[in-house]
Structure formats: structure tokens, C-alpha cells
Amino acid sequence: MVALLVAVGAIALNAPHMSALDEPTALTGIVRDGRGVPQAGATVELLRPDTSVVASVFTDEYGRFLLAHLIPGTYSLKATGTLFLPTLRENLQVLAHRRMAVNLTLSTVVEAFQWLPAKRRTVDEPDDEWAWTLRSSANRPLLRMLEDGPLVVVSDMDTAPVLKARVILHGGANEFGEGGLHHAFEIERSRQDDRRLILRADIGSSEGASIASAETLVGYERQLTPDNIIRTVAAMQDLPGIQQTSVQQGIQSLVLRSSETMTLTPFLDAELGNEFDALRGASTQIANHPFGAMTWRGGDIAVSYHFATARNAQRANELDQASSVMPTISESQGTLRMERALHQEFQLERSGERTRYEVAIYRDRIAHPVVNGGGDLSVADLNSGYVVYDPVTELLNVAGGDYITKGVVGDLKSRVRGETWFTLSFADGDALTMPKFSLPPNLQQGLTTLKPRHTQMYAASLTGRVASSGTHWRASYRWQPEDTVTAVAPFDMTAPDAYLSLLLRQPLHCGHLLPNGMEALVDVRNLLAQGYRPFVTSDGSTLYFAQADRSVRGGVSFTF
């Protein structure tokens, strides 16, 4: 018996070592551009010291790549994307039975250099005698010609801190609480591939508001090991113009998010996170929204299970997105409400060089679903305790009845040419609908008619880039019955905006009049104003409810 126990103990102690020896040698990572946006469809190649290619793969829609079953040794890793200079990471030591994470950044010719002060300015130095010098930019890259000809951005594994900044000026009523003219800046600092710090601030002003709105976000990312990444984000938002009643104005929110991403095996990834929300207006609301996912990958096929309890916090790599800071809020019986839900889905995904598809089955249980609307609101309806109103954008949020929905979501993406992709989307499930009224009801009675109905959604979109001008564009149309006022499959955040929508992002070049790094953005949503459900109340309000209001947002950004 003693000998048996000793043998079992020896096997248990050596089990981790045995499993490590069974783990194949692999390289994984994410390819991003200079602004941190993941680059789908980029080519990643592993090169020998003589620049011959060992293996080649394409990144998926999240910019991720995996090179498995490698032979240990010293290699270079090269990433190539349309409109970008190739990036080469040299002196990469691939260890046996280890899964290494290496992230790559693609740079344009403009981003490959920065102008920085050569020395500190002295107190008595005139402004017009300020001296400048040219040095290499992110990760100390060097522009170099490979033996096969192309110009590449080269960096060694021993990298220096990187500091990036962007200033944004934009306006247009695009979302609830985001009206007026906004001045924003963003600073990102990263060191090597294991740490990243981001700071973002946004100040909004409008003619109708005496106090400016403010939003601040701080995020930190740390790669503890090649298989473990933690992220933490803290955001505060103050919207002084939002009204719950004619005398109660202002809503403040605090959002704390954290997540951990783990590689359990060469083929199995997991992530787990949580969002803490604190909301203060006429009342105070506090909530936790956990989320998580488990993904198995084999070649170009991935199978995953995903759950979430809030639409704004679903994925670990999306915690710092600016569009998801404000909790989804409404009001019921004079009390602020946050939308609560339990979303579960199983997804099958296949990524190829020219064609990709995703199919998922899902089930949602949603409480206090937010319905968007707008129009002229009377004082009586404003004081009813069933609406949150933004006088700047003239948009409002109300709460619909709780409901449960389940169905199927599918996407088919095909590369038309170069960086142009065509996408077809389909969703089946329940959405809230609003009927037509023969006589004007009061607001509370009208909201009780919001009922779920099983229906479908169909969408088509075309995205691409113009190589000669650097223009990025997207045109999309998403249809579902016009009496529906919420989206089918509301947790599908990859679906395009409702009905006809257009997006144009254009780098600005005008000789020496404009500095490099300037970019213009035009975002048009629901151009034809479809899906509006008119609603006239007995108290004199002329309103409408819709999946998305027609809006045009424009802005200019400067990255340096």
C-alpha cells in the first residue's frame, strides 16, 4: 500500500511537467494599427534568419493569429497589411513546449516618424527659436530594406516605452447624452508588449446647457505571462443636462471594469470579467454585470460559449471602448433603472483568407429593456416618472416590459477585392413592438403596449479602403419590421446600425497647411428616417420611438 501511494504521488507531482512536454510550441498575438485597432486579414509570417518563410497565417476579425507546432529556435516575425508598412520583429526566441504571445503594430509611412523636441526649452529662449529633431517613433522602429526588396519597420524584442496621443473635435446628435460640441483627447503609453496605460477625457458643450458634460476614462492592461492578460478600466461621466423631471437635472455614473484572459491549453482560451456600475440621479442604482467566454480553436475553426449580463460589457478586449461607458438607463415609477439581462450563446466561427462565417444560437432574458425615442415632451409627461429626457438632442429613454427571447444569428463575410469586404447578416428572435393608436393615450398607458413579437432581421454591408487616398468607408442597410422598436438579437454588437447608414473616414492632406495625422469623420445613421413609430399623448407630447434616430455626426481628429 505504501509503495502504491508513493507511486501515485510521484505521478501527481510529475503531471504538470508531463503536460508541459505535451504542449506544442506555438506563437500567438494580435496585430493592431498605430491607434490600437485590431487589423483583420493581415498576413503574419515566421521567418528564418535567412528570411525564408517557415509558416504563414492570416489574422481573424479581432486581429488575432496563431502559429502552432513550431521548431524551437531564433526567428523573425513579419506582419503585412494593406496601406501599412510591413512590420518585422527580430531576434525572437521560440522556446520548446511554450506558447508565446507577441503583439505587432502596423505603421503607415507618416506614423513611422515623429517630430520631438531635441532639448528642453530654456526660460529665456524665444518661441521662434524652438529647435526640433527627427527620431524614430513607436517601439524605436528602423526603416530598412529586406533582401527581397520591400521597406519594413523593424524593431527588436527589447523595446522602449511608446507614447501616443490624439485630439478629437466632433459634434452631432448621435446618441442619448452625447449632443453638442465635444472636445476630447486620448493618451496611450505602452512598454514592450506587456503593459499599456490609456487616459481619455471628453468635454461636451451646447447652447442649451449651462454646464458642460464631462467624461474621463483610465485603463490599464498587463500581460502577466504569455498566457495571462489582465485589464482594468475606471470611467466617470457627468451629464448635467439629463432630466428625470422638470426640476431634477443631472446624472452621474461610475463604471469599474476588470477582466482576465487566460490560455488554458494551446487550443482552449478563457476570459472572465465584471462591470460595476453606480448611477446617481433622483435615485441611486448600483449593479454588477459579470461576463465570460470559453473558446476552443482548431486551425481556422473556433467554437465558443459566451455569457454576458450587460450589452456594454461583453468582451475583455472591448473594456475601454468610448461608446460603452454610459450604462443603459431608463426610468420607471420615478426610479432610475439600469437594463439587466442574461445573455448566453454558443458560436461556431470559421475564418478563411477570402470567406468567413459565424453562426450562433442564443437565449436572452432582459429586464427593463431600454426603448429609444425623441420629440417634444410636455411637462406633464416629463414629470410622469416614466421617461429620462435629453433636452440637447431631444432624445429620450423609456423602459419596456421584461421579456425572454431566443434564436439564431449568422454572418457571412467575403473579400470582394483587396480590403473590400461584403457581409450578409441574419438574426431570428423577439423584438418589442408598438402598435398604432386610434386615440392619444397617456404615456404610461402607451408604454404598456410594448410587447415582444417573434421576427427576423436581415442586413448587408460593404466596407473597404481606397489605397490611393487612405479613405476608409462603410455602407450598410439593416432591415426588420418597422413596428419593432428594439433590435432582434440585441447582444449582437457586430450588426450594422438600423436601416441605411454610412461611415466615411478620410485622412486630410493639404501640402504644408495641415499637419500629418489629421483625419475627418462623417457618420450618418438611419439616413431615410425609417422605423419611426409616432406617438401623441393625451398630455400634449408629440413623440416617436425607433431603433435608431436619424443623425449625422462629423468630426476631426489629430494623431501625434
From TrEMBL:
It holds the Pfam family CarboxypepD_reg. SUPFAM superfamilies: Porins, Starch-binding domain-like. It comes from the Bacteria. GO terms for molecular function: carbohydrate binding. This is Carboxypeptidase regulatory-like domain-containing protein. It comes from Acidisarcina polymorpha.
